[in-house]
Design goal:
The structure holds two protein chains of two kinds. In chain A, about 70% of the residues lie in helices and about 0% in strands. By secondary structure, chain A is an all-alpha fold. Chain A folds into two domains: about 200 residues, no CATH class; about 140 residues, no CATH class. The longest helix of chain A is centred in the N-terminal third of the chain and has 31 residues. The longest helix of chain B is centred in the N-terminal third of the chain and has 32 residues. Classes of the chains: A mainly alpha, B alpha+beta.
């Protein structure tokens, strides 16, 4: 009988995974091609819901890309060895998700071929234009940061680079929150609470993604994560989840208090069909309460629990973003306060939206890009966290 | 004068003549293509006063005229472009019903212009808010920002375009106040088409214009005046 060396099946599996990711990315590109050919009419987006599922995927990845760097910051800026060992992996994930998220955002444009126009014409009052600078700057800065960590001669520069990344990502997530905070007329947006809310959400989502990848990496390499480390990381995730739930609660509470906003809150939290369902079952229960139980529950909080909790936090993130982005647009604009309105353009009506297959393909294509970047990088470079046997801090 | 000097002089003359003949038609064509030289004046602020009492429910003449003038298909599906629409509103406490046309309100401080990443959304000095179709990347942020839902994204390939109103799939567009007509001394198509003269178009800055006199005389409102955008379109009888 022919025997294979121990790494044989793993090598094969690696290429199968890579091919799978590549296929999904290609399917995403094909969807983009069709959207280019026929126009956005083939998607579920329309003139009432102008941002759809691709934006849910893109914003998740961009927000998580910023949040995952928290792991790196705690290491480089605050000098915790446990996190320092994980800073390269966190930085890699940040780059990968930024690449995936930005690809989706760019390929969903009506004219993605004009990306050079966006690069050469800047309107300084536009937060979108600021974000073009913030996202590309972040990309460059994190690459630089990785270089200072992985090239021994550059090690002395790790701390300043880490500090720069730390500051940059706060501004970046503020910029992402401001995209919505600067919208004056829509009930769902236009709140100064949104940038800090996005920052706290980014902490939870980024760390959840980190946990998922880290756990996979440990299993792949037949290693076991030190329970002490797991304990600390899971507690941190718990704190972030509670923090983000608090921010979301305050956002809705302030809205509920304003008479002009109660109609919108009733829609999002009670009467809006899919939106309250996604919010309560998807975000609050599955995305927050169940993960918290898995993290803090007596007898729970072990490796598998933390993995499941992290996966649920990511699921909850998608639910929340769907409610926030699409539900926020579905609720009619209040152009005539005190009047009921009707027209051929959906005035006074809740807008309907059914995501199309093409949008799913584009969104998953973005995730696939992040997956490919991560998978190839952990294979060719050493991103495995190197822990000492004891923890000094 | 030497023979060589004369030759040189003749050579220069011929070259100049040939150059003039070569360039002249180009300059003429360029001039023709450009039409008459126009300078837009910042002293003017174009606007509209819409008398809702004169606007009939069920009448769509302004919408039809807009579609014809701007080469729009006139469909009303969720992905169709609508530069102007008729909105029927009913007061929730008194039950009073009003019908009115809605279009880009040509704000003095347009949120669409603030948020546009490339500067494709812009405001002319005479107050008309436009989209530069060469700069628009189709991000739709302006549609998110507009409090009046005045903008449409072109979801499908376009055909039968009016040469004065270039359009393109994948970009955002909205009421131009018929800028191509205004620049030729005409009124916007909707104002001209309204049989009841419910849409009064003119220069808000000229104290002697009909619109300025009427706005002084009758009560009019800006939609979502609380946002402080100072719209160019005003409504009477709301």
């Amino acid at each position: 009988m022919k025997t294979h060396p121990p790494m044989y099946f793993k090598n094969r599996l690696y290429y199968v995974l890579l091919a799978g990711g590549g296929l999904v990315a290609l399917a995403g590109l094909y969807a983009v091609h069709l959207m280019e050919e026929h126009g956005h009419a083939i998607t579920g987006m329309n003139n009432q819901i102008v941002w759809g599922l691709p934006h849910v995927f893109a914003i998740f990845m961009i927000v998580a890309a910023s949040g995952v760097l928290n792991v790196a910051s705690i290491g480089s800026v605050f000098g915790k060895a446990l996190y320092k060992a994980r800073a390269p992996l966190a930085s890699l994930l940040s780059i990968a998700m930024l690449a995936g998220g930005l690809s989706v955002l760019m390929l969903d444009l009506g004219r993605p071929d004009r990306v050079i126009v966006a690069a050469t014409n800047t309107n300084l009052t536009s937060v979108f234009a600021w974000n073009v600078v913030l996202y590309s700057g972040m990309f460059a800065l994190v690459v630089l940061y990785l270089w200072t960590m992985m090239e021994r001669r550059m090690n002395p520069w790790t701390k300043p680079a880490g500090l720069a990344v730390f500051a940059w990502r706060f501004i970046l997530t503020t910029g992402t929150g401001l995209i919505f905070a600067f919208l004056t007329a829509r009930q769902a947006y236009g709140s100064a609470l949104l940038p800090p809310m996005f920052i706290v959400l980014s902490f939870a989502w980024g760390l959840a993604v980190f946990h998922i990848v880290q756990a996979t990496l440990y299993v792949w390499n037949d290693k076991i994560l030190d329970p002490v480390i797991l304990q600390r990381k899971k507690n941190l995730l718990g704190v972030f989840v509670i923090g983000s739930l608090y921010m979301v609660a305050i956002y809705h509470l302030t809205n509920l208090y304003f008479a002009q906003q109660t109609g919108f809150e009733r829609f999002i939290l009670r009467d809006g069909g899919i939106y309250p369902n996604l919010f309560w079952w998807g975000y609050v229960l599955l995305g927050n309460l169940v993960p918290l139980a898995l993290i803090y529950g007596p007898g729970l909080g072990r490796n598998r629990c933390v993995f499941a909790a992290s996966a649920l936090v990511v699921l909850g993130a998608f639910a929340l973003l769907y409610v926030f982005i699409i539900g926020g647009q579905a609720y009619p604009l209040n152009i005539f306060p005190g009047y009921e309105a009707s027209s051929s353009f959906g005035d006074g009506q809740v807008a309907s939206y059914t995501p199309s297959l093409y949008e799913f393909l584009l969104g998953f294509g973005g995730l696939a890009i992040a997956f490919i970047v991560t998978t190839v990088s952990v294979r060719v470079l050493n991103f495995m966290p190197q822990d000492k046997h004891y923890i000094t801090d | 004068m030497s023979d060589i000097d004369l030759k040189r002089r003749n050579f220069f003359k011929t070259s100049l003549g040939a150059a003039a003949i070569a360039i002249a038609p180009g300059i003429l064509l360029f001039d023709t293509a450009h039409g008459k030289a126009q300078t837009v004046s910042g002293k003017v602020r174009w606007g509209m006063l819409i008398d809702t009492a004169q606007c009939r429910e069920g009448c769509n003449d302004c919408v039809t005229a807009c579609n014809r003038e701007n080469g729009l298909p006139g469909a009303t599906s969720a992905t169709a472009v609508q530069w102007i629409r008729k909105v029927d509103i009913k007061n929730t406490t008194t039950g009073r019903q009003v019908s009115l046309p809605m279009m880009c309100q040509h704000c003095e401080s347009p949120p669409c212009v603030d948020v546009c990443p490339t500067g494709a959304s812009f405001k002319r000095v005479d107050g008309i808010v436009l989209v530069d179709r060469h700069l628009c990347i189709g991000c739709r942020y302006c549609m998110m920002a507009c409090p009046y839902k005045a903008r449409s994204f072109v979801h499908e390939p376009v055909s039968d375009q009016n040469p004065d109103v270039p359009r393109g799939k994948g970009t955002v567009e909205s009421c131009t106040l018929c800028v191509h007509r205004i620049d030729n001394g005409m009124q916007p198509a909707c104002a001209e088409a309204c049989a009841n003269k419910a849409i009064l178009f003119g220069d808000l800055n000229d104290p002697d214009s009909e619109i300025a006199r009427k706005i002084r005389a009758v009560a009019s409102v800006q939609l979502r005046a609380d946002l402080g955008l100072n719209t160019g379109v005003r409504y009477q009888g709301l």
